[in-house]
Amino acid sequence: MRLMWVMALGAVLVLAQAMAATARGMPESFADLAEQVSPSVVNITTSTTVETSAGPGPQLPDGSPFEDFFRDFMDPNGDQPRQRRSQALGSGFVISEDGFIVTNNHVIEKADQITIEFFSGKELEATVVGTDPKTDIALLKVESDQPLPFVPFGDSDLARVGDWVMAVGNPLGQGFSVSAGIVSARNRALSGTYDDFIQTDAAINRGNSGGPLFNTDGQVIGVNTAILSPNGGSIGIGFSMASNVVTNVVDQLKEFGETRRGWLGVRIQDVTPDVAEAIGLESASGALVTDVPEGPAKEGGILSGDVIMSFDGTDVADTRELVRMVGNSAVGTSVRVVVFREGKTQTLKITLGRRETAENAVPAVQPVPQEEPQETDVLGMTLTPITDEMRAQLELPDGMEGLVVANVDESSAAYEKGLRAGDVITEAGQQKVSAVAEFQDRIGEAKEAGRKSLLLLIRRQGEPRFVAISIDEE
Q1: Catalytic residue among 91, 177, 184, 209, which?
Q2: pLDDT band at residue 72, thresholds of 50, 70 and 90?
Q3: Which among 136, 195, 201, 306 is annotated as catalytic?
Q4: Is 106 a residue of the active site?
Q5: What b/e sequence results for 272-283 when a residue is b if at least 16 CB atoms lie within 10 Å of its CB, and e otherwise?
Q6: Could you tell me the CA-to-CA distances from 463 to 42, 356, 416, 423, 426 in Å, in that order?
């Protein structure tokens, strides 16, 4: 009797756990979801014309069985290149009944023929509406006599680590394959400026690229883009570009056939704790402006040395976040930018330009400056003022003033912070310096203010960067 009671209690506990799991959103099966979304997921086959290598073929004896084989790739003389077709496979998904399809840019890049295969087996040729290599997104279009089944985008910002997700695609050419897992991490960055990847352990392999990552409501919250693997196969670390990035890109590609991202016009770097201490900032957050070339920021009053704390009403955590916020803003938008300057905040109004236009006008990088004779040792650096002769030798811009770093003691804090011979110090303590005496005055002022480090603005190969170095050893 007691045994039966224990067994009954165990059954009740198992049932209770199952009900709790269901209440938490854990699906008993993905079958209904897979059946619901599969008609909207497509296989993509691309075809590209490539040339085989030119040059004479191998010398074969008359009557060799390999003669026909090599004749397929060369002319009868064996010295002319031939064209052949190269094929690649990928995935995608339909986002509207009139035939717009989203995939990865790398799936269709350089293709001269794109074939879309639907779950029903129907095939249609697709044209490219537009691409965005920065987020690896492409928008395609097919013409269909009948409305196509499509899937909606969801809000990727609502996805939580641990949520169930399902990937559908064409892995290794197998076609319409489903895998499930969870959101392993959020806001991952790989190498792109606008990266915002959802990491998942749902199996993703070659051929899954461009396919959708679904939440349990059947909404697309990511586009499967990349995997991390030592062997080229899935090891449970896959990356899907977040839908909130994708939808912004798709809307622009649909409207303009290209992206039109906002441009602030500043060079920036992250605020480190020592930089924050050097300028009197309470926390190491925001984006430190290292240079302000001609553009919207300069016209709006932003200065080198400002820390951008807020953009269009949203706090800025770091440079990556600022770049994404600006890029997601419409060209021509007027925004309020809050900066930290000389111990207090200021609000500036900036009208954004277009990043793509600005990128086409970026000047060439300056040649690497060479070392010059030593003069004065300060903070482990040998410094010398810029002369006209030195400006010509180092190919520095006309009018640039500052101190050239001729040498750096490898045991100094300056060396540890990355300063090297050939760097040019143009500011110290957010004030311009052109003489060693001025540099030493900035050190004294920082000590009087109770600071342990001094903020330097250096230029290397034409690129500006702020560095905070310790002044305790002076």
Answers
A1: 209
A2: low
A3: 136
A4: yes
A5: eebbbbbbebee
A6: 45, 20, 19, 10, 12
